[in-house]
Amino acid sequence: MSKDKPDQPAATEVLKPESSPDRATEFMATEPLGRDPAATEAMAPENAPTRPDPAAGTDVPGEEDQLKVGSVLRDRFRILGVLGRGGMGTVYKATDLLKEEAHDRDTTIALKVLKPGIVDADITFMALQREARRAQQLAHPNIVTVFDFDRADGVIFMTMEFMRGQGLERRLEEGPIPIPELRRITRELCQGLAYAHERGIVHSDLKPENVFLLEDGRVKILDFGIARAWQSERRDFVEEAVAGCTPAYASPEVLQRKPPSPADDVYALGCVVAQMASGKHPYDWHSGLEALKQKLQPSRPGGLKGREWRTLRSAMALKAADRPKDARAFFKRFFPSPTRVTAWIITALTLVSVGVYLAFFQPEPGPEIPFEALPADLQASIRRNLDDAALFLAQGDLNTALQLYDMALEAHPGNREATSGIEQAVEQALAQLDRAVSEGRLSPEGRRTTLRSLLEYETLPAELRDRLQDALSD
């Protein structure tokens, strides 16, 4: 049956930058995004299958635009044009005049302005403040960088990094995505979502329009605008005033207004991955509730391995208890560790052959699978992460460097370059923590909090973990 197309606690910083936030400058760009990456659609009736209108959010400024090309907001941001529009507001391309004056090489930003009249202005301002605060907690290479929020000249706005590439929804207009590319995109989506889930934050509106594909191949998750802290914060009047979703990607629990859960994001992730594989929405654009009512079942796309399809099918389950509990659980099932994949080879060896191997070869510590033996797309992804991590490490951005090295080690356990890099980053962090304490800029408790944050990286080498434990007990 075919359908017509209708219209928790904050992450602990290892080091605080001494200047204004200027992260991920390598990901800024000079081309239009096309559509509003931060649009959130209002709740639709549960039995109405909907698909985002490809014509929505044109690049031509309309009469509803609050800011005109050439105007300057708060004596700092000169408007260059409209990037896109959505249910919550308009995203503009702008120049940061302060950066321009400082001769910064990256002066272009994206500026999101909320529509007037959606809700009361004070509630809107509180909602945007919450969005900016949560997004700033999520300093991760696969999550869009949010700089700040403000209110001026009668508008409420937020500034974000400006990127070159295209939205996943536009990429899908070309048809199904080749399986190697699908796996790479899925891997990075999982990594970004897992980072948020581990910090108690649910996206709540993941969909192709909120996934951006950079020209260098990296994936960015956009719009944590209706994200909610599911572990510790209560839903309040601000959340209710601006909360919405896109029904075709919303789990039945979201549509039933149940408390948010990472399993909601897993459902949306499953729908997005299935759509990448087949080029079609797995439930033919029906909402989760309607799919449940009609007892619909998604069809298996071609090209996926049995393990991948089983994981994907469980992610799209219409009952939360049947899904992977969060993005990390999905990741581990969809992408088994190379070590686990090859474990059967080791168990197939006889005790004698194992003994001979150990006696004569005694391999040095390192990856069980050589880098060159990994799939080409995985090699490319790891290589990008390693190169970017080295750049951020050289610039002193230890948080981003640690995250990138951690991602490389998750994908390729034992990778020597990543191991060396994460060791250097931790050594620098320890030195700067000790210096900050000795200079009175950081309390001993603040130091311990940061050390505990460092210990959360599961890929830390054993000796480095022991050192951090020793430092924590000092």
Distance between the termini: 66 Å
CATH architecture designation of the largest domain: Orthogonal Bundle
* Rg, Å, rounded: 23 Å
Helix content: 40-55%
Tell me the CATH topology of the largest domain.
Transferase(Phosphotransferase), domain 1
The total domain count is 3
Number of strands: 11
> What class do helices, strands and sheet pairing give?
alpha+beta
Described by strand count, sense and barrel closure, the largest sheet is: 6 strands, antiparallel
- The coarse overall form would be globular
Description:
It holds the Pfam family Pkinase. Residues 77-335 form the Protein kinase domain. This is Protein kinase domain-containing protein. InterPro entries: Kinase-like_dom_sf, Prot_kinase_dom, Protein_kinase_ATP_BS, Ser/Thr_kinase_AS. Residues 1-64 are annotated as: Disordered. The chain is of the alpha+beta class and 474 residues long. The protein folds into 3 domains: 25-161, Phosphorylase Kinase, domain 1; 165-334, Transferase(Phosphotransferase), domain 1; 340-473, no CATH class. The chain is 42% helix and 12% strand. The protein contains 18 helices and 11 strands. It has helices at 97-101, 121-137, 168-172, 179-197, 237-242, 252-255, 262-278, 288-294, 306-315, 327-334, 338-341, 343-348, 351-360, 376-394, 398-411, 416-438, 444-454, 462-473; strands at 72-73, 77-86, 89-96, 108-114, 146-152, 155-161, 165-167, 201-202, 211-214, 219-221, 228-229. The chain has a 6-stranded antiparallel β-sheet.
